[in-house]
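Example for tutorial group B:
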């Protein structure tokens, strides 16, 4: 079960302050796209995301996108944000995450992976020892059968996590 637990759970990516990363020695943020930086398949970042990214960059934190989505979806979004990216990342396999650490000259202990899904993002981060896995609450429910089933399977895990680790939850999270 621990492999599916995030190290931290935030209400929204924009609620994570620079100090959170600085205090933990995090130098690289590896970011999911859909339901993390924007809603599912939306070409525009969620409100506040551009400002949040600017704060991270100004603090000297490196940023990159790691998405399971195809390049046709990820590339225009990454270009809009001014970020490098890896599409078709095959998360939860940590190969893309390892590549990002190497590319940016950071150790796993200096890296945080931020995403909205336990079975892809959080598991990916937790499969590379030392990485700080950060869950953000999804911005809107997905409508496909596959995603609805994954979210249904996540709920009991998140409830258990919330009971066992309430101090690792920042902001309002809805189960």
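The residue assignment follows.
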């Amino acid at each position: 079960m621990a492999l599916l637990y995030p190290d931290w759970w935030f209400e929204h990516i924009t609620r994570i302050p620079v100090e959170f990363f600085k205090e933990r020695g995090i130098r690289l943020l590896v970011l999911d796209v859909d339901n993390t930086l924007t809603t599912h398949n939306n070409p525009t970042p969620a409100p506040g995301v551009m400002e949040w990214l600017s704060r991270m960059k100004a603090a000297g934190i490196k940023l990159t996108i790691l998405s399971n989505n195809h390049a046709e979806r990820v590339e225009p979004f990454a270009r809009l944000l001014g970020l490098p990216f890896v599409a078709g990342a095959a998360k939860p396999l940590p190969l893309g995450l390892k590549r990002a650490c190497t590319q940016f000259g950071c150790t796993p202990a200096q890296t945080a992976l931020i995403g909205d899904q336990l079975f892809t993002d959080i598991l990916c981060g937790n499969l590379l020892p030392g990485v700080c896995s950060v869950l953000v609450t999804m911005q809107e429910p997905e409508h496909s059968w596959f995603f609805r089933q994954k979210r249904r399977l996540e709920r009991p895990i998140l409830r258990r996590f919330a009971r066992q680790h309430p101090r690792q939850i920042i902001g309002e999270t809805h189960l």
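The chain has one domain: 2-169. Compare this with the pattern of hydrophobic and polar residues in the output above.
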